[in-house]
TrEMBL record:
It holds the Pfam family HTH_21. GO terms for molecular function: nucleic acid binding. SUPFAM superfamilies: Ribonuclease H-like. This is Transposase. InterPro entries: HTH-like_dom (IPR025948), Integrase_cat-core (IPR001584), RNaseH-like_sf (IPR012337), RNaseH_sf (IPR036397), Transposase_IS3/IS150/IS904 (IPR050900).
């Protein structure tokens, strides 16, 4: 047996429902406008099938959306600007973590403290390498230069004391 199209000698394109390109473009634009351009080409393809019963290749929908400027708007990732590094110094400690007298060599760093799953606090501490004792610390909800300066202002540094840090942005700012 032959197919119905061959029996009455009608080509395949003539007995199928034709998809006019202009109609598809209008439907895509309508869907994009209705949804405020938040959906991408894959979702628009699914909506064409679900709402209008049209089966259109995802690559064709992408091409139409791209050519007509209808691609979804992507959000840019916000990167926190913690400050520009101003003054980098040489590593004077050179991995010599031994100290012969108190308050000679001090190290400082910031540590993240997580509580209740997703909440975060910052701990700024200064440790004396003579006896590995924390001699100053501050806890804050934000990591900025004032937070680190509060820790530093808790103690009086003797003349010639070496304070070593990882030279992050808060430690290389002009205020520090």
């Amino acid at each position: 047996m032959t197919s119905n199209g061959r029996l009455i000698t009608v080509g395949k394109k003539e007995y199928e429902k034709p998809q006019k390109k202009d109609d598809v473009i209008e439907l895509i634009e309508q869907l994009c406008m209705e949804n405020h351009f938040i959906y991408g080409y894959r979702t628009i393809t699914r909506l064409l099938k679900k709402i209008h019963g049209l089966t259109v290749n995802t690559k064709k929908v992408y091409r139409i959306m791209k050519n007509n400027g209808r691609l979804c708007r992507t959000r840019t990732k916000k990167v926190p600007n913690l400050g520009k590094a101003y003054d980098l110094t040489d590593n004077k400690l050179s991995r010599d973590f031994h100290s012969d007298k108190p308050m000679e060599k001090l190290v400082t760093d910031i540590t993240y403290l997580y509580y209740f799953g997703n909440c975060k606090l910052y701990l700024s501490s200064i440790m004396d390498l003579y006896n590995r004792e924390m001699i100053a610390y501050t806890i804050s909800e934000c990591q900025d230069t004032d937070f680190v300066l509060d820790t530093l202002n808790q103690l009086k540094l003797p003349k010639g004391a070496l304070l070593h840090s990882d030279q992050g942005s808060v430690y290389t700012s002009m205020a520090y």
